[in-house]
Each structure stands twice: as structure tokens, then as C-alpha cells.
Amino acid sequence: MSRYYEFYCPVKVISGDAALEHLPYELTSIASTRPMIVTDQGVRAAGLLDPVITACEESNLVIAAIYDEVPADSSTTVVRDIANLYRQQECDALIAVGGGSSIDTAKAVNILVSEGGDDVAAYSGAGVLSRPLKPFFVIPTTAGTGSEVTSVAVIADRERSVKLPFTSSFLLPNAAIIDPRMTRTLPLHITAATAMDALTHATEAYTCLGKNPLSDAYATAAVKKISGALLKVMDNPDDGQGRLDLAEASTMAGIAFSNSMVGLVHALGHATGALCHLPHGLCMSIYLPFVLEYNLEQIREPLSDLLLYLEGPQVWATTPASRRPEATISAIRHLRDELHHRCELPRTLRETNKVTEDQLDQIAHKALDDGAIMFNPREASFKDVEAILKKAWG
């Protein structure tokens, strides 16, 4: 663990029942009168914009524009179209309502409407932005990515077939609004995959080389909330408290990993997502136990701690200290089995039916080039990564 660290999270979190009704106050407090909503068709079809619009209307706030066609894998052309609409309608703030794609898209739109121009690729990379952007609010509708509290965004550039990363503290929203109404209609398989995404964020944050005492506090709290709420929500999707626990855990895990980093699970996930178009949360769920096994000897101490948050004090106390790290990995495997039983969430690459065995080499090469691997507690060669992939193939 590094002796020196920095921790930064300036995002105001507004959470709980009727959290949405506080949005108009936040907008008027910064003199915004013409906000724009960025979302996708699924969110709109599920009726999730209604409470947002109603809350604004009741406070005599006009939503100046709504863009509801953000695709699952957003691109630079979509960002350009939304920025043009923002300018035409003379909007003065952005509200992202949705999952990771809508939030990342709104972050990129904010770069264009604040900095000018049509080519968001010009601002790609780290440290390119030099001043604050327009007011920006996020209302997550999935409990997984943690994008509402991270300073990164990824947008596809279709013409060049690359994914452009954007990193700047100026991308952070003014506030994240966590309201249990927004995730209640989430289908079970997406609830499961996004919760495993958050669990992976927390677990990697707690075991990676960049971990620190403040990120640890958020990471362990997130693990505890997920392990306590996930199966309850799977059995009773209308469990408002459980939904809120998962949403808060996602935010906490986002704060944790954006202040500590992640590791090999993410490197493999990014590579698999790019090559095989598997959803990110699903990749996280598949790879997590295999990578923890690979890292085991380097992370015995933090893995021992996590057993307490995953299984509770009784199991932790009755498990011999020397066996706790293995018990943590077993608990994660058991959770994946339970999710597979309830919604057929794949546990291996083979079970996805979207990855072929001859793609494993390509995934391994791509994963070794991914920045996340630098913070993995154990170094990995091509052979090591290939061996993990063969196990994950199933």
C-alpha cells in the first residue's frame, strides 16, 4: 500500500426517498432555468423521466430539451448531435438520467458545450481540460457503474474504431441523485450484473496497489451493502430499501475505485467488452473469482478482511484465520451461483455464448495493454493471463 495518496470526491450526493424532488432546488441555486435531459429510449419507455419532469414542473422549471436516443455504446457522432441540440435550445445545464452510457455521453457533451467545437476527440486523454464545465447533474438508473462519482468517460469513435478515454476532475457532476424509484424496474439480469460490477469495483479498490485508508472505508461499506441486499432484491424486486442499498453501494464503490484504481479484472473486462461486446458488468462477474485466485498470495490480508463484510461477523469468527482469504473467494463464487440460479447470469465465458475459445489470445494481448493492469497486486505475463482466461472459459 502506498504511504502517499490523494482522495478527492467533490460530488454532492442526494439520496433516499423523494431525492428527485430536490433537483429543482439544486438547479435554481446555480441559476439554471433551461436544463437539458440526456437519456435513452429504455429509460423513457420505463416511465423513469416522469418523476424528474414532474418535480421540475412543480417548481416552474422548464426542461428546455430532452435527448432520449443514447445508444448502449455511445459514439462521438451522438455527442455532437446532442451538443448541437443543447446550443439550439439555449440550454444552461445537463441532467443525465440513465446508466453508464447516458452518463458518459452527457460528460462528453458537457466538454463540447463548455469548450466549443464539434470534435470531442480533441479533448481525449488526461489533463486536457483546464477549467470548470457547465452545471451537470446525474440520476443513475442502474446500480453498478458508479459513473456519477467518477472523473472518467469512454466514448467510441466509430470512424477510427477506437474507444476514446476522457479523464478530468472537471467531468465530475455537481450532484448525484440516488432515488430508489429509478432502479425499481431494472430487469433481474441487469440488477445482478450491475451489482457484480459494483462488487468488483469495491473488491479491486480494496486489494489493488493504490488502496488507501479512505478508499478502503468506502469499499468495505459497499461490499457489506451489496452482500446484504442483492439476493433480497433478486427475490423481491420491489424492495425499496434493498434497491437503495444497491444504488448507494454502487456510488460508494465508484468513490472507492476512482481514488484507488482497479486491477486485472478490469483489464480483462475492457478487452472482452471491446472484442466480444459483452456487457461490462457481466465481464466483471465472470472474471472476479479467477483473478482473486491468481492474486491470492499477494492479497491474503485484505481478502481476509472482506470475509467479514461479505458473510458477517459469525462466519468470519468461526473461519480459521488462515482460511479466510479462500473463504472470501468461495463466498463470491456462491453469490454467482445464486445469481445464475435466479436469472441465469453466466459464470463462465462459455456460458455467455458470445465468446469463442479462439478469441482468448486476442483478449489476453489486449488486456496486457490496458492501463488498469498497472495497479494489479501481482504482475502478469501473457502466459499468466492466458491461463486465467482458460479457467474463465469454463
UniProtKB/TrEMBL annotation:
<comment type="similarity">
    <text>Belongs to the iron-containing alcohol dehydrogenase family.</text>
</comment>
<protein>
    <submittedName>
        <fullName>Alcohol dehydrogenase</fullName>
    </submittedName>
</protein>
<dbReference type="GO" id="GO:0046872">
    <property type="term" value="F:metal ion binding"/>
</dbReference>
<dbReference type="InterPro" id="IPR018211">
    <property type="entry name" value="ADH_Fe_CS"/>
</dbReference>
<dbReference type="InterPro" id="IPR039697">
    <property type="entry name" value="Alcohol_dehydrogenase_Fe"/>
</dbReference>
<dbReference type="InterPro" id="IPR056798">
    <property type="entry name" value="ADH_Fe_C"/>
</dbReference>
<dbReference type="InterPro" id="IPR001670">
    <property type="entry name" value="ADH_Fe/GldA"/>
</dbReference>
<dbReference type="GO" id="GO:0004022">
    <property type="term" value="F:alcohol dehydrogenase (NAD+) activity"/>
</dbReference>
<dbReference type="Pfam" id="PF25137">
    <property type="entry name" value="ADH_Fe_C"/>
</dbReference>
<feature type="domain" description="Fe-containing alcohol dehydrogenase-like C-terminal">
    <location>
        <begin position="191"/>
        <end position="393"/>
    </location>
</feature>
<keyword id="KW-0520">NAD</keyword>
<keyword id="KW-0560">Oxidoreductase</keyword>
<feature type="domain" description="Alcohol dehydrogenase iron-type/glycerol dehydrogenase GldA">
    <location>
        <begin position="10"/>
        <end position="180"/>
    </location>
</feature>
<dbReference type="Pfam" id="PF00465">
    <property type="entry name" value="Fe-ADH"/>
</dbReference>
